[in-house]
Amino acid sequence: MRAESSAIDDNSIALGRSSGARPGASNDTVDHTSTSTSTSTSTSTDSNAAAGRGSHRGGLVLAGLGVFAFSLTFPATAWGLESFGPWSLVALRTLLGAVIAGGALLLGRVAPPDRRHWAGLAVVAAGGVIGFPLLTTLALQTSTTSHAAVVVGLLPLTTAVFSSLRTGARPSRAFWIAALAGAAVVIAFTAQQSGGELSGADLYLFGALLTCAAGYTEGGRLARVLPGWQVAAWSLVLCLPLSVAGTALALSAEPVRLTAHGVIGLVWVAAGSAFLGLYVWYRGMAEIGVPRASQLQLAQPLLTLLWSFLLLDETVPAAAPAAAIAVLVCIAATQRTGRERRTR
């Protein structure tokens, strides 16, 4: 028995030597593995956080570019009305935008979206492609671009409300306080510079506000599952039959007096506002969320006033710089609040 035990012990020692084992090796291996896993997890978390910050900054830039493009829409529309009637301008805008969007889809060999997305695209088309351009164009026949900025001043808050109702997003209380403050600043500023008077055009403007908020909300939701440019492109293509018929009817009923301003205005609202602007806008909303992106539009009325001064020779009120600073503070506050919660 002693000989057998000795043989077993010798074999164990031999095996230990052949495998390079040493006392405490098993613990060292476990500790090393644990440390490696902890380091890997920490690195992964840091990478994800950095990626999230990068995505947020990229979304802010894209949404900001969309606001820049949209801020030129009213002055460009005013230019377009020098050459075209309101119905002709909107029909041509939609038609040219659809041609550009269709060409991009064909070049990219993009397959049509799933059937479940078409209802949402119809809402985007009705609100952002047809409703808002048509109603604001009709309003600009009798309203100045600065007065029409009232719509844009209320649009961020309205879009945030629509998004909360439609998608279940629940921004923080601090977000809503900052959003309401920003809307109040813009409304007070635009009401002061317009004398606080309401006109018949305001009915068009309020209608445009509601249709656009619905379109933006649905577009931001779809941009989470489809590329942003495809949301903009397919919504325009969806309107192609209506825009062709509308263009034929409108051009036959309204006179056309081509001017350089009129052509430039038409090209911008078709290519810049209807396609490129919506592309970066929906992509930005997908990155940072509809409520946060919408608050960037608080700066849009002030940018529009700047373009109105530079391009249309409209007077910029002396209170504009102070209003701009206040709006920027509110925008910064909405972007610093926590990410929205979802209830469904």
**Helix content range of the residues, please?**
over 70%
pLDDT averaged over residues: 79
Compute the number of strand runs. 2
Strand content: under 5%
What shape does the CA trace take?
globular
Distance between the first and last residues' Cα: 73 Å
**Uncertain stretches:** 1-45, 47-51, 340-344
Order of helices and strands: HHHHHHEHHHHHHHHE
Query: Strand order across the biggest sheet?
Result: 1-2
Structure annotation, total helices: 14
Secondary structural class = mainly alpha
**Largest pleated sheet:** 2 strands, antiparallel
Radius of gyration: 29 Å
List the helices and strands and how they pair.
Blueprint: H1 2-18, H2 25-71, H3 73-80, H4 86-107, H5 118-139, H6 145-167, E1 169-170, H7 173-193, H8 201-222, H9 228-238, H10 240-253, H11 260-288, H12 290-295, H13 300-312, H14 320-336, E2 341-342
Antiparallel strand pairs: 1-2
Helix pairs in contact: 2-11, 2-13, 3-11, 3-13, 4-5, 4-9, 4-10, 4-11, 5-8, 5-9, 6-7, 6-8, 6-13, 7-14, 8-11, 9-11
